[in-house]
Amino acid sequence: MEQPLELASTRMILRLFVTVFxxxxxxxxxxxxxxxxxxxxFDQGVAAYDxxxxxxxxxxxxxxxxHDLAAMRNEAxxxxxxxxxxxDPQKAEExxxxxxxxxxxxxxxxxxxxxxxxxxxxxxxKAAFPWLAAAAEAGHPVAAFELAQLYxxxxxxxxxxxxxxxxxAARKLYERAADGGMDEAKKHLQALPPDEPVKLHPYSxxxxxx
Length: 210
What we know:
Layout (H helix, E strand, L loop, with lengths): L34 H16 L3 H10 L5 H13 L7 H13 L3 H13 L7 H13 L3 H13 L1 E3 L2 E4 L3 H13 L3 H9 L19
Antiparallel strand pairs: 1-2
Helix pairs in contact: 1-2, 2-3, 3-4, 4-5, 5-6, 6-7, 7-8, 8-9
């Protein structure tokens, strides 16, 4: 599912030890201790993206990607789509992973989706699952929906179970996605079979001995 650009700057939660090279003097490397400059560059990137000046937007986002999770995620999105830069799904996954490890739920959802769909290689449900679960737990409706689909059907690799079929878990996740505004989740909820009633065992003195 199409994911929107991050519109708000998000300072790093985890300090990533990478070296940044300034692209030009006009957008010199922002210091991690200078959030105002980072935000200014980020906002310029959003404006360039909205104007469809994708090459400039990518340049701006990449100049602050070691200080700002949202910029990192936007850079990954552009690598994924090939906006303003050569399409590179493998590099996009790497950037999404860095942003997700920093605590950005949208990046975790995007990475899980890419792995699930096999955009940079064979589909990998096992690798996608924890990213989708983390994003769903953080309240991301698309991740909740995609996770619910896995639980609804269950996933196996030959005889090995990757995701167990669990309609109760699927129902909760569809409800979460529906609460987040996903109409498709509402349709899946209506199509789910009713929960099975809990089976009660008859009273027996043998089973209730002290």
